[in-house]
Design a protein that fits this description.
alpha+beta
Amino acid sequence: MKRASRAEISGPLFDLVVVGGGITGVATARDAALRGLSVALIEKDDFAAGTSSRSSKLIHGGLRYLESYQFRLVAESLRERERFLKIAPHLTEVRPFLYLLYDGYPESRFKLDLGLTFYDVASGAWRKRRHRMLSPEQVLAREPHLAREGLRGAGMYYDVLTDDARLTVETANGAAEAGAVLMNHAVVESLILDNGTARGVVVRDLIDGEPVEVHARRVVNATGPWTDRTRALEHTRSTHALRPTKGVHIVLKKRDFPLNTAVFLRSPDDHRVVWPTPSLEDDVVYIGTTDTDYAGDLDDVHADERDIRYLLNVANRTIPDARLTESHVVGTWAGLRPLVAPPPGVSESNTSREHEITTGPTGMITISGGKLTSSRLMAKQVVDAAVAKTHARKSVAGATPLPGADASSIAEARRSAETEGVPADLAAVWIRRYGANAQRIIERWVRDPESRELIGDRLLTRAEIEYAVDAEMVVSLSDLLVRRTAVFFWSDDGGLASAEPIARELERLVPWPPGRREREIEEYRSLVLRNRPRG
């Protein structure tokens, strides 16, 4: 996956230009390219720089949406979950979840059992994964540190964890492999209009500061929380506004919060369903999420003291003996849900997660709402809308594996790592992040002894940094540490201790101008500190 040159993106007339490099945008580009359409994608920051790296990192049916009778949404999401397990096995992991029942909760044991039965059957995988209802004694045998008082049992069911940013990056990679032309760090400034019809976009490349025109037959707005801002390029007021809500998570060390199974329970503050979840990383647990209306800066979303206190209250309700305070919080992240605005009077949590496709007065197609799990379906539907009345091929994205997903090639990469003497913990990280493409990192590691040097505390080597620059369009320090390797999320200090040596390595690989390294370090430091509790 290479960043497009000026000639590659300004020369052709594309069938489709997609604005937005979150999961919906890259899935749209991939779907269209796999149909044989010519596609350009423009992202103002980096792939997954917004919501798509700041979700709950779950591919799930949305069990809690059964409370509001959104059966179709849940069934649809469960089917999509099963598709992701097939097309991205290296980025998805089935995990057990405990839906806890305590005195005072509105769910009866019968009602929860009924809901979980629907969840099993609607997924189409009930023969492989069926829920079980557990007694209080069975729950505590599995998770002995949970609060005992008032515990009435739990339903144990299954959902899927993922690395949301890596899923987005690999989807972008899949779009590129299918022929799409991609440019990150480039902002769309205006539409190109032909007799009032959108026929492309004017882009400013943030790397060199120069404008470039990208011409296309159709323009798709897939900019998530920035949807209304992109709609404003049509210079008309849309009646399809968003209601962005903020979702915050906190990260705790497992030694401070000894939990091995993800649990659903209700917040002691407002009785919303929240979920402490052991990460794919071995030593941390994250807790989320809040759900509050947001009217601030879309480009600077972070947790505040009230968010952190709310989630710490959840933690201390879950495991009272932990007695957690703000000093135990390793880090936080916050993202915006780009929800379609509901009628007045509907609360944040009850606002539908359904998506909506609209066509504006210039013909620009906008996709809004939805969630990570439904991204493939959203992409299919928006491309269907873009190619309506043409003879374009049907979507094949749901049956086409993402890059690195081939099981036999993954097994071969594991054997190669063992044969070549790659440390087992390092090989495991590479396989989990890159699947079969880990072989390309292994080859670098073997070929160049200097590439084996570890930089930082999360098993980051020169070989992996070189791969990220060469094959995954890394341009900045945040690209690497937040969205390619997740050091930002799981490291004790967010990667600050290793930021300088990593920036020096990037400076060697990326054509940064003088002074850029120092600016990158300072910008990354600011990002980390904004997402760490004060004090």
